[in-house]
Amino acid sequence: MSDRETWTTRLGFILAAVGSAVGLGNLWQFPFKTGANGGAAFVVFYLIAVLFIGFPAMLAEFVLGRRTNVNAVDAFGELGHHGWRLVGGIGILTGFWILSYYNVVGGWVLRYILGSATGAYFGDPGGYFGAVSAGPEAVLAQAVFLALVVGIVALGIEDGIEKATTVMVPSIVVLMIALAAWVATLPGAGAGYAFFLSPDLGTMVDNAGSIIPFAVGQAFFTLSLGMAIMITYSSYVGEDDNLVFDGGIIVVMNTLVGVLAGLVVFPILLTIDYQITTTTGGPGALFVATASGFSSVPFGRLFGVVFFGVVLIAALSSAISLLEVSVAWANDNFGVSRPVLATGIGVGLFVLGLPSAWDTAWLTWFDNFAYQLFLPLSALLVVVFVGWVLGEDAVAELRQGTGGLGWFGPVWLWALRLVVVAGILATLGLGVETMFLGEDPAVVQPF
């Protein structure tokens, strides 16, 4: 096992974790899940889920990583529970699975930056997406994006990931604020804000049963939980770091970017009278809808470049965390250099991503398996282990660096054991129904 690197600063860890959480989940999916599930009503349930489910679950992953200072698989063995090592393996494989098609979407973003600069999609946004999202062009763009990710991870924790995210995360926030200020001048700004920020109590009550599972899922997935990322990142953290405080900052920053994404996207869409329904949130929704908006507003080329530039930064910051999970496991167990490991794993990711790059139907299939099954299963097992197997030892680890938790420790532990487990079980149950039990099971859709 090679010597492990650590974060050079506490801020480096926080920004890297924020960068992982603030990815395509916020900018690619959040606005359209909001639109398809009641607008502001969804936002209310989402914020509740972030606080009461996402935050406790994130702390569980932090505890497991810092207590062992090893990768997600070996962490369970380090604690003497070798049978649970399979849980870490599920997390690593889930991250690998997700990154295989995430790279494809990253390639789309590269093409849309170029398309914004040249105005290539202005005449036919839907046709442009069809041309660049699948086939040889998508394969090439996937390879370029993946090469960027591999290059950053190959440089290591300090010189690669920490330095990159220290620049990326502040850039995301600053540019999103600038975009939000610009869209405030558009004709549809008022209607967009009303849709996004004015919850209707009747809608919340009447549709709570259908909205809550999606809100819980979005809260969980947008915080990078269930992919072994937070276990891996926290394994590079020192014992004197306050995990509760750091986790709170990460949750707040992630939520802020999600809200900013809504403040940017909905005024653009309502300016062009774009109709958001349950069928408009597919993999190309962000690209086709926002491209239509940029083609119809003043200075569309400039702001298109800025917007998709922000999406690229967010995609990269998340992708490097996903790759680091696999590299960390291999680096802990084999005497092979980081550049070789990152490149070899990158080749495997490229091969697994080829179906998604060739046909968006396969990308949707990969995405459904990840979000409906793999992520909630992985997260559930981690939460059960930390809550019921580690138990009070987990509270003791969380107490390190805080100066004492007081009432928070027991409340967190029982919230983990009961509330978080129940929320994930509900999400997993919905996922099983979607994949296997519906009238048109998602598991057979590409075939």
- CATH T-level topology: Hydantoin permease
Strand portion? under 5%
**What is the chain-wise order of helices and strands?**
HHHHHHHHHHHHHHHHHHH
Major β-sheet annotation: none
CATH architecture: Orthogonal Bundle
Care to count the β-strands? 0
Distance between the termini: 43 Å
Based on CA atoms alone, the radius of gyration comes out at 21 Å
Question: Fraction of residues in helices?
Answer: over 70%
CATH class: Mainly Alpha
Query: What is the domain tally?
Result: 1
Computed structural class: mainly alpha
Instruction: Please report the number of helical segments.
Output: 19
Mean pLDDT: 87
Shape: globular
Low-confidence stretches: none
Question: How is this structure best described in words?
Answer:
Helices cover 77% and strands 0% of the residues. It has 447 residues and is mainly α. It has a single domain (10-444), classed as Hydantoin permease, CATH 1.10.4160.
